[in-house]
Amino acid sequence: MQVFQKGKGRETTAAARLRRRSAYQSSAMASRLQLPGDDSVLLRVTHSNIKSFSADVRFSPEMSVESIKDKLWKKCGTAVDSMLLELYDAAGSKVVDLNDATRSFGFYSPQDGYRLHIIDLDPSSVTSGGWLEDTSLVEKYKISEEAYNKLDNNFRKFKEKITAQNPVAKEGKLSENYMEDLCANIKVGDRCQVDPGEKRGVVKFVGRAEDLGPGFWVGIQYDEPLGKHDGLVKGNRYFHCPPQHGALIRPDKVKVGDYPEKDPFDDEEI
Question: CA 1 to CA 208: how far, in whole Å?
Fold first, then answer.
């Protein structure tokens, strides 16, 4: 085994490696201690108009007072020209007013734990009146019913449009006889055409289909496999037809009459 000699004793390779690592870490620690530290100070910031505003903000002593005001403006909304800064010590005693915007912050000897208080001198400031904290003080915008109805794109019109495009959403309020009158001239065995799409077929069922919603429905066997089932819907058999030829639809989409089967070759060019 490789060893390192130290006088008359012996030291293993592992022990030597551990000793060198410890020495390196100690050296690195010493080097870090020699680096200049962070000289910024951490202050509690409060505001004269916004009682709930309180933040811990770190500032560099090299910053000018004007730079500090600009930084605080972005946090609280008080304009730089309307801002007066007061510095308080950790015990709550006032130290000084930061009156000279050109001086560095370090001139006023701030320390960690001090408080920087913002006074908003503008009576018309966005921070005045307390409405930033109490929304009940904010004047609400109101519009008359007549003016609201004249708007081209209001929520009420949007909702009516969506409901009109989705009949299923309205069916919860439909009667049991919904569209029964439209079924008066529709009989099982009639040839028909279904719109949109001009799909042709034969009527196989006329009546209620509770699984699909209140009111009357018409069962169609399409001439082509344009349907969704064979007449069996949600476990109930309404009629029989070949698979993918069946459909249950509302009677307002069905026209009965002389609708023979389409010749698939009619549209072919010669």
Answer: 96
* CA atoms of 148 and 154, how far apart (whole Å): 7
- 3-state secondary structure at position 123: coil
The amino acid at residue 224 is: E
Dihedral of CA 50/103/111/98: which sign? negative
Residues 6+ apart with CB under 8 A from 81: none
pTM of the model: 0.38
Asked if residues 42 and 112 have their Cβ atoms less than 8 Å apart, the reply is yes
CA distance 218 to 215: 11
CB contact set of 184 (below 8 Å; sequence gap of 6+)? none
Determine how many CB atoms are found less than 10 A away from the CB of residue 201: 25
Distance (Å, whole) CA 215 – CA 193: 21
Sole residue written with tokens 């099982």:
188
- Residue-wise pLDDT for 98-109, tens only, equals 989 899 999 999
Q: What is the pLDDT of residues 208-226, one digit of tens each?
A: 998 888 999 999 999 999 9
End-to-end CA distance of the chain: 98
pLDDT digits (tens, 9 = 90+) for 108-125: 999 999 999 998 888 887
Rounded distance, CA 186 to CA 184, Å? 6
DSSP structure string for 193-256: EETTTTEEEEEEEEEE-TTT-SSEEEEEEESSS-SSBSSEETTEE-----TT-EEEE-GGGEEE
Whether 104 and 63 have beta carbons less than 8 Å apart is answered as yes
Contact residues for 23 (Cβ-Cβ < 8 A; gap 6+): none
**Which residues have C-beta within 8 Å of that of residue 181, sequence separation ≥ 6?**
none
